[in-house]
Amino acid sequence: MPDDAPAPPPPPLRPLRTALALGLAAATSLGLARFSYALLLPPMRAALGWNYLTAGAMNTVNAAGYLAGALLAPRVFARLDARRAMLAGGAAAALLLAAHGAARGDALLYALRFLTGVASAVSFVGGGLLAARLAATPGAPAGLVLGLYYGGTGVGIIVSALVVPPLPWRGAWVLLGALAFRVELEIGDSPFESTASAKSAGEQAIRDNQSHYCPSPGLPVFREEAARFVRRREFRCASCS
User: Fold this and answer.
1) Cα(144)–Cα(136) distance, rounded to whole angstroms?
2) What is the pTM of this model?
3) Rounded to an integer, what distance in angstroms lies between the CA atom of residue 83 and that of residue 87?
């Protein structure tokens, strides 16, 4: 490259900030919710009298939950957009992590490990989808965006290694849940771009004086559309019978 060639412009900051925010989802769904179990296994095994089969089965059940969540993710995304699915999965995982600290039997712990896997997988897949979309936007450094997202897993592992060992295992699970929930609050306030259509619709609603609470039965235009939807579904069901 010639010496007088212009230096490449720095990557835009907004995609990088958004990628960092998304990386917190990976920190929760894999770092806090899954890999932290390796740190908690020794004290849990000693306190609960587990044999090697039970200790390994807890991890296997969690992995099965991740598989189930990944397989269910397309159905979830058919009903929720990727961001809502990511946030809902992360919030559910946070509550389930905290519930580990109150579990009194192996059966409940098996259920919690499985459900944590399901919720975390939905959150992780949703975050990956958002990161891929962000990487595809013009001007975004695709490799760096994806690296920041998937690198969030390592951040979660480091945080787990710092906060888990000094605590009793029940307190550690509660703290992990609290940290995961705090992460969800941070992600929910992250700088996702509003689409041009959403901005335009909001401005139009203000101009049309539609910025107040709607009537309890709902707006007529939405009620009419809901009625048409139901009629179409009923027609399809009748034609199939």
Assistant:
1) 12
2) 0.73
3) 6
